[in-house]
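re: ur msg from earlier - yeah i can do the adenosine-5'-triphosphate complex, just paste it... oh wait u already did. ok heres what im feeding in:
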Amino acid sequence: MGPLAQPTPTAGSTALDRTTAGAPSSRLEMTGISVAFGGVTALSDVSLVVEPGQVHGLIGPNGAGKTTLFNVACGIVRPTAGSMTWRGKPLRRLRPHQLAGLGISRTLQGVGLFPGMTVLENVMIGAHRHARAGFASALLALPRSDRDERELRARATAALADLDAEGFAGRYPGGLPYPVQKRVALARALVAEPELLLLDEPASGLGEDEMHELGELIRRLSGRMSVLLVEHHMDLVMRVCDRITVLDSGKQISAGTPAEVQADPAVTEAYLGDDVEVPAAGEPSATDGGRHRG
Ligand SMILES: Nc1ncnc2c1ncn2[C@@H]1O[C@H](COP(=O)(O)OP(=O)(O)OP(=O)(O)O)[C@@H](O)[C@H]1O
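and the outut:
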């Protein structure tokens, strides 16, 4: 999709301060979210709850509004109506730079790694929530704590090792295969040990085996954190999600467990004409991974 619009400029920040959050429960609640881009209604009164420790899938045909809702959760798009709470507290005027402080990490479509930095440095940037002096100061060559730097390095190395990518630590992202770059982007999101992980199409560009590994990883992560997953690959979504919300033309048309959603005729209807087949419950889809209807 094209460039994202334009959150309204805000004076001051009122997004929830993590230090005052208190509530232990990593629950994201989005209620009555509507978004209009000029004359185009991208979302109309959509609600969903990502329960603590659960994987919540967001699916729908092309143009359904998935990325728009994801971007609302990231603070990239400001909703025209609706509200959000995170850990039981209102989340207002959220901006993307506040996510880390709230215990939220995201990966976006594509990989978004910095080409001029090594893999390890890219991942270290994601760990800044844990640094006192901060990696930003390292970037700016400001005085910093060597201990912080060592800790960052260790955390980033461990995150890469978790994703079997530690062997690429000293490499630059541009020369690496796309699936490896995706793993590095995921390591960067995980190194901060988020309580909520927002994943926008993490399986795009992956082969069958890599997708299977990604599924295992997401299942391993659930329980440790809540996950909101936007994804076109139906088999993956049906395998890893605890609950699923289905959008079509900006509206919620179904929600429930994978089995409930698969059995919902409204979902099959929404995908008619698409080259994605919604597999019957328990069955793998022969066309898993198809997506565009043009
Ligand atoms: N920045 C924008 N400006 C104008 N219209 C937009 C913008 N972003 C999205 N839209 C429109 O909003 C609607 C929802 O788009 P969105 O990208 O959220 O859908 P999606 O479900 O993520 O689609 P896809 O699966 O193709 O990525 C579409 O009609 C799209 O054209």
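cool cool. Residues 1-24, 130-134, 284-294 have pLDDT under 50 and may be disordered. ping me if u need the other ligands too
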